[in-house]
Design brief:
- This protein is of the alpha+beta class and 582 residues long.
- It is 37% helix and 21% strand.
- It has helices at 5-19, 74-83, 177-185, 191-198, 204-213, 227-246, 284-304, 306-332, 336-349, 381-425, 429-441, 477-487, 517-529; strands spanning 23-28, 34-41, 44-51, 58-62, 87-92, 99-107, 113-121, 128-132, 138-141, 252-256, 259-264, 276-280, 359-364, 369-374, 461-464, 470-473, 493-497, 505-507, 538-545, 566-571, 578-580.
- A hairpin with a 5-residue loop joins strand 6 and strand 7 (113-121).
- Helix 4 crosses helix 5 (204-213), helix 8 packs antiparallel against helix 10 (381-425) and helix 9 packs antiparallel against helix 10 (381-425).
- The relative contact order is 0.06.
Length: 582
């Protein structure tokens, strides 16, 4: 799943078609490393989303908008000062590098025409958005890179901009057969690795596709190919170059079963057999938005929840250590009943003990078995019995105290694990606010004295089953309680993953409607998907009517009990369900 140079070429082709001649109407910076540009064109208003996030850099056209911070960051203010209402005159990609250059004409304070360039580098952790003047000098960038960080290139205001060539790769767009053959054959590697290691713009998946189309095993070493094989491979390579030059792309996502596994700007014909299939998209931007929108959201939420995860993980580790220690101490109390029995037997048979004896054999009248009771030779049988009763009493008190403590600590562990699962499910900052509130209520986060209580706007997820029933999924413990005990009616059905943290799932029956089997299965799949067991093939699900669910007094948020239930095994596939945006 590579955002390679061919993918960039496809996006640039769409940008040239949609944005050239347009004027920059709005410039927003929703996140520290993101830009959202709104461009007015002859065909209406367009939006360009750019992200230089180290884990998920992206650039594509979108219809979606994102909320911006109340105060715009300095980089955003700088772009507004120079580029607001500027006209996009040129969009290019140097070779097949993962770089997009957007040239903009604008009027300065004196009314003179100026040219600036916004450069987007999609290069993994080295991704950046760089703003340059007409002389190629950096005015500013969304990330500053000093010499202490990179010995290859500084990205700082006033420095000249240049493309850093850290890999000795050839330009695929200007390669003939002799150059191709020499470059590939010179590498003692599998063919597909030699391909993407020799030319810019080619990802491993595209290299494997070229080998597949040429009827070559990409895992073979380059030395194993004969001249005919090299000619077939170059023919497919030339066809790829033709597609890029003619901008005749075919964006598609490859699936294995229901799971997306790869995407490309060219048809991935190697994913057209057995359980594999490909789905074509009208544009690369539409593909990227579909493929990455959820992943991008989850990446952002994961970054913003880092402090909460750290708090939960620290508390969880501390409680697990405490729980393990308590269980060990509990094991040390297991001999308490043995000491009690020995004391009773000594009171019964102590007259048989000889003075100074180190043990006494007696019949345990509870089991009719002979036991050997160790004795302190310096004590009488009665004194030994008293000693054993004292040990029993001490261990009994320890056991009773530890039993209560272990229940409390286990309850805290279960609660913290449920919060950890809720952090994995969270989709928005509103979800995180609700989890933060729960942590504050539970004493894991200290509430600030003058802080106003956050307005909690997060709502449960709402799905429609294949048979038209409304299904609701709690995203955290506060929602789970509200969903089960305030929203659901007595005859509604309640679902939850058995024995593991997860969401409460409610199926509304609208009174006395009987649910079809398919709805039970789909609700079970939702309970499985929104649980700690999401990565498993199947998860056991408990389900019961809501009227059977009880909330124990003093129980932690999300904790319920039920004494009768049905069970089913559910897959974590929810593709058949429709999510409703309430």
């Amino acid at each position: 799943m590579a955002f390679d140079g061919i993918t960039i070429a496809n996006v640039v082709s769409e940008m040239k078609r949609e944005l050239l001649g347009g004027r920059l109407y709005k410039i927003a910076q929703p996140e520290a490393d993101e830009l959202l540009l709104t461009i007015k064109t002859g065909n209406g208003q367009k939006r360009l989303f750019i992200s230089a996030d180290a884990s998920l850099p992206l650039i594509y056209l979108t219809q979606s908008n994102k909320q911006s911070p109340m105060t715009a960051p300095n980089f955003c203010m700088l772009l507004r000062k120079h580029l607001q209402n500027g006209r996009i005159t040129h969009i290019s990609q140097p070779g097949l590098e993962r770089i997009v250059q957007i040239s903009v004409e604008h009027l300065d304070e004196l009314g003179d025409l100026r040219k600036k360039t916004l450069i987007v580098e999609i290069m993994g952790k080295h991704s950046n958005i760089i703003f340059c003047d007409e002389d190629g000098r950096i005015i500013d960038s969304i990330k500053h890179i000093s010499a202490a960080v990179s010995s290859v290139r500084e990205v700082l205001p006033g420095k000249p901009y240049f493309v850093a060539h850290t890999q000795d790769k050839l330009d695929a767009l200007s390669t003939d057969y002799d150059t191709f053959w020499k470059a590939v054959s010179a590498k003692p590697q599998p063919v597909f690795k030699a391909l993407y290691g020799s030319f810019t713009g080619i990802s491993p998946i595209l290299a494997q596709e070229l080998c597949y189309e040429a009827d070559i095993d990409g895992e073979l070493p380059t030395a194993a190919l004969d001249e005919a094989a090299y000619h077939r491979l170059f023919e497919r390579f030339e066809n790829m170059v033709r597609v890029v030059r003619e901008e005749d792309f075919g964006p598609n996502i490859a699936y294995t079963g229901s799971q997306p596994v790869e995407f490309g700007a060219l048809p991935l014909s190697m994913y057209t057999h057995g359980p594999d299939k490909t789905v074509a998209y009208p544009s690369m931007s539409a593909l990227l938005e579909s493929y990455y929108a959820e992943k991008n959201t989850l990446t952002r939420i994961r970054q913003k929840s880092a402090d909460l995860r750290r708090i939960v993980q620290t508390a969880l580790e501390r409680n697990i250590k405490k729980y393990d220690l308590q269980l060990k101490q509990m094991q040390d109390t297991q001999k308490r009943d043995t000491y009690r029995i020995w004391g009773e037997l000594l009171n019964t048979y102590g007259y048989d003990a000889k003075p100074g004896a180190k043990s006494l054999e007696a019949v345990n009248y509870y089991t009719n078995e002979k036991v050997t009771i160790p004795l302190d030779p310096n004590l009488t049988a009665t004194e030994n019995a008293k000693k054993y009763f004292e040990k029993y009493g001490k261990l009994k008190r320890t056991y009773e105290a530890l039993s209560e403590l272990t229940r409390e600590v286990k309850s805290q562990i279960d609660h913290l694990e449920s919060i950890s699962t809720a952090l994995d499910i969270a989709l928005s900052e509103a979800d995180l606010a609700q989890i933060r509130e729960e942590l504050a209520q539970s004493g894991y986060i200290r509430k600030k004295g003058n802080a106003k209580k956050a307005k909690l706007t997060s709502r449960p997820l709402h799905y429609i089953s294949s048979d038209g029933f409304h299904i609701y999924v709690g995203k955290n413990n506060l929602q789970n309680d509200q969903l089960t005990f305030q929203f659901a009616s007595g005859n509604d059905w309640w679902f939850h993953a058995k024995g593991i943290p997860g969401s409460h799932v409610i199926v509304k029956t609208e009174g006395e409607k009987e649910l079809p089997d398919r709805t039970f299965e789909e609700a079970g799949s939702l309970a499985a998907y929104y649980s700690k067991g999401r990565g498993q093939d199947k998860v056991e699900i408990d389900y019961v009517q809501k009227k059977q669910i009880k909330k124990p007094a003093g129980a932690k948020p999300g904790f319920v009990v039920y004494y009768t239930n049905y069970s089913l095994m559910a897959e974590c596939d929810i593709s058949a369900l429709t999510l409703v945006n309430d």
